[in-house]
Structure formats: C-alpha cells, structure tokens
Design goal:
The chain is 19% helix and 29% strand. It is of the alpha/beta class. It has 3 domains: 114 residues, Sandwich (Immunoglobulin-like); 344 residues, Glycosidases (TIM Barrel, Alpha-Beta Barrel), CATH 3.20.20.80; 111 residues, Trefoil (Acidic Fibroblast Growth Factor, subunit A) (Trefoil), CATH 2.80.10.50. The radius of gyration is 25 Å and the shape is globular.
Length: 618
C-alpha cells in the first residue's frame, strides 16, 4: 500500500466413516475436525482434488532501487542473489515499477524517473536503479516479470503531477502507447514482461505527494484496459494485463464486477489482482474466489505489508522477529487456501524503514520490507543489510513452491496449526505454520495407496533460518511430525505414481449438528444416523458422490445427478475452514436461514464465514 510520508515515517503500506476401521488406511473423513488433543492427533487429510495451480511468488522493486543504485555494485549483486538465486528467496516473480517521472513528489526515492523527454522522445538511460535490478531478475531467470504503474506521466494527468489527479481521457491512448513502447524496449533487451498492471490502488489519490499515484474511477478502468489491450494486439505483444490492484478485498469484490463486465473488456484481462490491506476475514477472502469465478479469470494477491502489533492488521511497527514471520506466513496460507489466489506478491523487497533499531521491535519503523538498509547510508556510508524473519518466512514458500505447483486443500489440522500442500513433478511440498507457543504434533494423510518418502525438511523459527532439520516419520502415505512452537517448516516428499483414493464419510453441519442428505429433489440436513444415505465420497475429480448420485449445483439449485459430467457445477472444494465451495459459482454449501431442524433446506450462498456454512465429520 502506498502511504505518503516524510523520509523517517511509513512508506506504504471437522465419524460417519466406513465402519471398518481399516478403511482409514485408504479413506479418511471428508472434512476432519481438529483433534481434542494435539498429543494424539487425528490425521489431517490432504484433498485428492487440486484446488488451483500456483503461478508465482514474488515481491516488488519499487522505491528501494532508487537508493540501491547508489550502493557498491558488490552490494547490489548480493541483493540480487538474496532475492533471485536458489541460495536466496529464488523468487518466481518480480514487479518492476514503471515510473511516472516524480513530478511534485517530495520523497526522492519515491519519485522514479519515466523515460519520456519533453519532446516525446525517449531516454532509455533513465531509471538506473530500476533497470539494474530488472536486469538481474531477468539474468537469474525469474519466471514472471510484471511491470506496474503508480502514475502516468504528469503531462497526461489532470493536475499535472505524478501524485493525485486522474489520467485525462484524451490521453488514455497516449498512455497505452507509452506502456507498449516500454514493454517493447525491455523485450528487445531480453527482459520481457509477462504481465503489465496499468494502474495501482485506483481509489487512492496520494495527493499529499509523498509518493506517486493516481485515481482511476471504476468507469475509467475498463477504458484503460481496452486501450492497452488493443494497442498490445496491434503490436502482437504477448504481455498479459492484470487489474485492478484494489487496495482491499472489499473494494475488489465490489468494484471488479462493475468494470470487468463492460463490453470488450474481459478479453484483455489475464489475471485479476487484489491487495489485502483490509486484513480480510475468511468471508472476504472467499468472496474473492467468488468474484474471480464469476469473471472466469484467476485472482492474484499482489500486495500486502505493514501489519504488526501481534496480528495481520495494519499497524505501525518494525518487527524483525518470528512473530512477523509467522504473520506473513499466515497471510500467504490464507490467500492460497481460502481466496485460492494463484500468486502471492509481497510489497517492497527492501526498505529503509528500520526505525530506531534494525535488530529489535520498535514503533518507529514499518514492516514494509523483507531486508532493510540504513536510511542514512548516504552520509554515514553504512551499506549493511539487515534481515527479518519475514524474509525467511517468504522463502519457506518461494524456494519450494514453484510455478506450476498444484495446491491441495488440507482439512482437520490441530488448533493453532496451518498446513498447505503443493504437488509438482512427483513431489509434495508441505508448508506448516505452528502458531502455538509450545510444540504441536501433526499427522498428515495423503489419500493414496502409493507411499510417500520424506526427502527434505527446512525450518524457520526464533533461532533458525532455513535450517535443515529432521525429516518427518512416514508410514505408507501418512506423515507424522513434531512441530516446535512458533515455527514454519517446509517438508519435501517424494511419491512415485499416485492413484488417489476417494475420502469417504458423512458431512455434519457445525451449527445444526445435522448431516447432509441429497437426492434429485434437493438437499437438506437431517439427524445423523450413520445410514448409507448420509455417506459421501470425495475424489480426485472434485466430485461429491452420495447414495443418490453426484451433488450438483445448477439453475434449479442443489440436486444429485446420476452421471458426473466434469462441469464446474459438479466440482467442489473442501476448504480447511469447513467451507464446501462450488467451483461454478465460488459460493458455499449453506443451510438456509441458519435453520437447524430436520429437513431444513441446503443451498448455495456467498461464503460468509457462518457456522451454517461449516461442515465437519460426525
């Protein structure tokens, strides 16, 4: 998030199982409830069905590059290695800021140069810092390069500044051509942008001029997208457009449907982008998935920073400790597991906002960066790099969860523990957050007859940074591990072949205590009896099959179908928080009116976090 400031303040921003106990070896509960005791845990379940494919994980090169251009080239090279190499974060995304010229911006490092001269020609020698690190990202083979714009050049703005104001309607085509020219220039240098974001946080004016920014009303967003898309088509550019970089999930869910629905717009949008500065609830994140499904375009989480004071909400604090690292890891987990975003991007990779002490929590700095440097480097010559646990926390994902990794939901984890799993090239990557102050036990069951083998375990904790630690115990396709308190652990598991098994059991509503039944006439809740009519199986196709057939979402509401067609109306996600989400609509299995009586109807409703939408095993 961009927030104006002077140099020394903030920069931005759940058994009704098969009765044979042996069935657990192959089949598990549909959605497991957290165990009563973490000392003797029930196995958490890895969904056999893929939720989404991960595109990339990254961070932005805004602002800090304008300071780092003044650093020793050896320090610059070290920073690039820390961000882009396999010894560092191994980021699979890097966001390059196309500057707006910095006109009237009062903070020099937040006033990036644009490439236009007054006569409309270009000076490609400008933006030395930005170009340096974009070049490094390309040389290291960062898989996804994004160019993003905070402000159009000042001459095309209503206020003639790089801060505040709007892009004038008559200059929308000029702006589109400029972005396309920049894209062409860097592509010729081997630095091809995979995506372009033409505006950022469009409801923020930034008219205090501490940084670049511009307002883009909802009714102008589609105009800019179409202008840029048409220009790209004319040049046969392959750069995808991402939009609209809303500051919050609330704004994203409200505003995206209004502009993306305008004729001729959606065809140009490759990804929908949101920021998470509103510290979104599970309900708001789930709504992101619904918004994306309705548009037919995947969502990316493209910016967050600056949480603190023990939580993931906006707060001024500089915190280099594991507390900050765990909060970042929680945000990544929720964006992937609940919003089902396909990418996660942190805000600035580096920052000077260390406050009074680079080694300890303080209320003067900000949690906007991953690595920090001295704001007074120019006068004292100090080019030391200061590391935070956020750096290592991001690496617990970015070093292992590579583009093309397929996310699988995990249900039934112990209290205080978050587990996410990713499948790629015959390997599983499992990232586990233990927010508890004490050690916690985890058993994780992969629904497959094929055994897994632990090959690697890496941990970040209060006193560990990407430390190689003991591999978890494995028996068949179940993994058992002891998790130190306040830690983030990544496990890499090998598995030859799959043959995923369906998981089987009853679905019990948390609020009603009643079990789901369904047939061709509809769906309802009734007292849990253990009868066949309440048994459901969930398989690798995302199908929920009961005695009456496959649970189906259609124009007539919820029914069952004798055949599975593979249509999105037949596919479901079992979220870790108990939500059962239909892929066609992105909405949740919901007991209407929060009713609890036998025969109460079950349908679909926007996911709202209500207990009438949470389903666990009996």
């Amino acid at each position: 998030m961009h927030v104006t400031h002077p140099r020394t303040t903030h920069p931005r921003k759940r058994s009704a199982l098969l009765t044979a106990a042996a069935a657990l070896a192959v089949a598990g509960p549909l959605i497991s409830a957290p165990p009563a005791s973490a000392a003797d845990p029930v196995a958490a379940e890895v969904s056999p069905y893929a939720a989404q494919t991960i595109d990339n994980i990254g961070a932005s090169g805004a602002w800090w590059v304008n300071d780092l251009k003044n650093f020793d080239p050896k320090v610059q090279a070290r920073v690039a290695k820390l961000l882009f190499s396999s010894q560092g974060l191994d980021l699979s995304n890097y966001r390059y800021n196309i500057g707006g010229g910095g006109t009237a911006v009062t903070t020099p490092s937040r006033a990036p140069e644009d490439f236009r001269n007054d006569d409309g020609t270009y000076d490609w020698s400008k933006d030395k810092g930005g170009r340096t690190f974009l070049s490094y990202a390309a040389k290291y083979g960062v898989e996804n390069l994004v160019a993003f714009v905070n402000s159009a050049p000042a001459e095309w703005k209503t206020n003639g500044k790089s801060c505040g104001g709007y892009l004038k309607a008559e200059n929308e085509q000029d702006f589109a051509k400029y972005i396309a020219d920049v894209t062409d220039h860097f592509a010729k240098r081997g630095q091809r942008f995979d995506h372009i974001s033409p505006f950022n946080e469009p409801t923020n004016s930034f008219d205090s001029c501490g940084q670049e920014g511009m307002l883009v009303d909802v009714d102008q967003r589609d105009d800019i997208v179409r202008a840029l898309g048409a220009e790209q088509d004319a040049r046969r550019q392959k750069t995808g457009i991402i939009a609209d970089e809303s500051t919050s999930t609330v704004k994203f869910n409200d505003e995206v449907p209004r502009w993306i629905s305008q004729p001729g717009t959606a065809q140009y949008v490759d990804k929908l982008a949101h920021h998470t500065y509103d510290n979104p609830s599970d309900a708001n994140r789930a709504k992101v998935y619904e918004t994306a499904k309705n548009a037919g375009i995947e969502s990316w989480s493209t910016e967050v920073c600056c949480f603190g004071k023990g939580g993931t909400g906006w707060a001024q604090e500089y915190d280099p400790t594991i507390d900050g690292g765990l909060n970042l890891s929680r945000i990544i987990y929720k964006d992937f597991a609940t919003a089902h975003d396909s990418a996660f991007h942190w805000w600035v990779a580096l920052s000077e906002m260390i406050g009074t002490d680079p080694y300890a929590k303080n209320d003067s700095g900000w949690n906007d960066g991953l690595i920090y440097y001295d704001p007074d480097y120019a006068t004292n010559g100090n080019q030391t790099l200061y590391f935070t646990k956020r750096y290592y926390a991001l690496g617990q994902y970015s070093k292992f969860v590579k583009p093309g990794s397929v996310a699988h939901n995990v249900t039934g984890v112990p209290d205080g523990v978050e587990v996410s799993t990713y499948d790629r090239d015959g390997k599983w990557v499992v990232v586990v957050n233990n927010h508890n102050a004490t050690d916690s036990s985890l058993k994780l069951h992969f629904n497959s007859k094929t055994p897994v083998r632990a090959s690697q375990a890496v941990r970040t904790s209060a006193d560990e940074n990407w430390a190689k630690v003991a591999k978890p115990a494995v028996r068949g396709s179940t993994v058992s591990a002891s998790l130190p308190g306040r830690s983030i652990t990544t496990y890499v598991l090998d598995q030859k072949g799959r043959g995923s098994s369906a998981i089987t059991g009853a679905l019990q509503g948390q609020q009603s205590g009643k079990c789901l039944t369904a047939d061709a006439s509809g769906a309802a809740i009734n007292a849990c009896t253990g009868e066949d009519a309440q048994d459901w199986s969930y398989d690798a196709k995302g199908a929920l099959k009961g005695a009456g057939g496959y649970l189906t979402a259609g124009s007539a509401g919820l029914t069952t179908s004798a055949a599975f067609t593979g249509d999105a109306g037949h596919r479901w996600l079992l979220n870790s928080n108990g939500q059962i989400v239909n892929e066609a609509s992105g909405t949740c299995l919901d007991v209407g009116g929060q009713a609890t009586a036998d025969g109460s109807k079950v349908g679909l409703w926007s996911c709202n976090g209500g207990t009438n939408q949470a389903w666990f095993r009996q």
